[in-house]
Specification:
Length: 134
């Protein structure tokens, strides 16, 4: 079920705020994007690639801003890249059983009962309203 346009706008504004806060300290914000998309009820199959693309874009922009401000020390970067890039490819090539986000898009449950999708932001709001009205 597609999200209403006002929910998309609210999600976009929250993600912009998350990107601004994370990038101000040199991070790209993937954890914020995934958490926000889960709260807004996005399917896990949409969250992963969206968070990856946003992480690459925001990380690149933050790096360029830090470099243009003279806060980037290039001689420190090269040894990290020599180890990090091959390690990322090796880690990415490892095939794990099931999805790391084990809700709403696969059958693997690791021997546990099946996982339901997390509640959406609207469901949280309804629960809070019920609690306040009681």
């Amino acid at each position: 079920m597609p999200l209403p346009i006002d929910t998309h706008i609210a999600l976009a504004l929250c993600m912009m705020l998350g990107a601004a806060l994370y990038s101000s300290v040199g991070h790209a914000g993937a954890s914020a994007y995934i958490a926000l998309m889960a709260l807004f009820g996005m399917p896990a199959a949409v969250m992963r690639p969206t968070a990856l693309v946003l992480n690459i874009v925001v990380g690149t922009l933050a790096s360029l801003r830090f470099a243009s401000a003279g806060l980037f020390h290039w001689p420190t970067l090269w040894p990290l890249l020599v180890g990090a890039i091959p390690a990322a490819f090796i880690g990415g090539s490892i095939d794990l059983p099931g999805s790391p986000l084990r809700f709403d898009d696969n059958d693997f449950s690791g021997g546990r009962p099946s996982h339901d999708a997390p509640p959406t932001l609207g469901q949280h709001n309804e629960a809070i309203r019920e609690w306040l009205d009681s």
